Amino acid sequence: MIDTSAFPTLLIIPTGIGCDLGGYAGDAIPAAKLLAAASECLITHPNVMNGGSLYWPDPHIHYVEGFSLNLFVAGELFLKPVRQQKVGLLIDAGLDLDLKKRHLQVADGCVASLGLDIGPAITTERALGINLKKGLSGSSWGNIDEPEVLLRGAEKLKESGATAIAVITRFPDDSKDLETKLYRQGKGVDFISGAEAVISHFLVKHLMIPCAHAPALAPLPVDYDLDPRTSGEEIGYTFLQSVLVGLSRAPDLICKSDLNIKEKAVLKMTSLLSNSNLGAVIVPQGALGGEAVLSCIEKLIPLIIVSNKGVLDVSSAKMRLDFFSGDKDMNILYADNYLEAAGLITALRHGINIKSLRRPFDSIKELIESS
């Protein structure tokens, strides 16, 4: 009998590169839901699942921050599913009183209405100072003026019993900037998401617990030429809700280096997820240079490359992936969209030969022994 149990699948849509799908707040959630239904075990990152006031929790989706995701695929980290995380709030001292109160009210609402375990909350010693930047490729990034202040606040939360951290920082108001206008019209890159990734990567690297970021911004004026994909960001006063929902069930991060040989043997027989469980990774064409993708290629994990245009151009042709793979039909697959990617996942999960689903259909070649 074919093993049709859960087929752990990794979905990556990089932050801050303006992908047609996944380049906006929450617009990749339907694709994630579909892929989770096809695989029954989808591992993905906050950029895919964060949707401002709109969110969609799914027991088959594991919410894993990007830095820890890279370590997981490299084999340095295990993921341990949990029933509930205790999410601490790390609040930038740069928030004014009203904006801070809005975020605390959101957290209270998530406890009252969703039953999440949130707290304590800590405000940083002083304003963190977030700087937004744009790379030569057109992707967004940024930095923090006071990283040590950010880290000290996060360490206090961890010491106080928080098992995951939602960090809320004051971002520059840029409603009049051309970048923001283009983004809201569906023609640009999310100018703040690159800096968000820098913040969460930094915290996870030092603390090794789930972390995700919610930007604090003044409400934007109404835009009558708004792209529907950005509409999720126009609802409510904060982006915190979906971050709290994601972190509330984010898996624990178990470092391989922290385990002894006996513990590693025991963990292999438990429900922990490791890179050896991965059945496939799904990533946009043009965004194939990330650490997680390179690790998957090295380990010959099937790679499904989806047409999903962004500003990067690190393509399969430029990386010569067809040449690199010993059997491209097994390890390098292509999909025009995430509907097709879900079909490929279903076929891989059920042991259906992809070749049998495509036309023209080539006959089997006979090997001829040389004399």
Q: Would you spell out the secondary-structure blueprint of this structure?
A:
Elements: E1 9-11, H1 29-39, E2 42-44, H2 46-49, E3 61-63, H3 66-74, E4 77-80, E5 86-91, H4 97-114, E6 117-123, E7 130-134, E8 140-144, H5 147-159, E9 164-170, H6 178-184, H7 193-207, E10 211-216, H8 240-248, E11 252-255, H9 261-267, E12 280-284, H10 291-298, E13 303-306, H11 316-319, H12 321-324, H13 328-331, E14 332-335, H14 338-349
Parallel strand pairs: 1-2, 1-12, 2-3, 5-6, 5-9, 9-10, 12-13, 13-14
Antiparallel strand pairs: 4-11, 7-8
Helix pairs in contact: 1-14, 3-10, 4-8, 5-7
Give a description of the structure.
The chain has 371 residues and is of the alpha/beta class. The chain folds into two domains: 1-81 and 254-371, Rossmann fold; 82-250, Rossmann fold (3-Layer(aba) Sandwich). The chain is built from 14 helices and 14 strands. It has helices at 29-39, 46-49, 66-74, 97-114, 147-159, 178-184, 193-207, 240-248, 261-267, 291-298, 316-319, 321-324, 328-331, 338-349; strands spanning 9-11, 42-44, 61-63, 77-80, 86-91, 117-123, 130-134, 140-144, 164-170, 211-216, 252-255, 280-284, 303-306, 332-335. Strands 3-2-1-12-13-14 form a six-stranded parallel β-sheet. The longest helix has 18 residues, at 97-114. It is globular and about 80 Å long.
Low-confidence stretches: 325-329
By CATH, the topology of the largest domain is Rossmann fold
Give the tally of structural domains: 2
Please give the share of residues in helix.
25-40%
Estimate the mean pLDDT confidence. Answer: 88
Count up the helices: 14
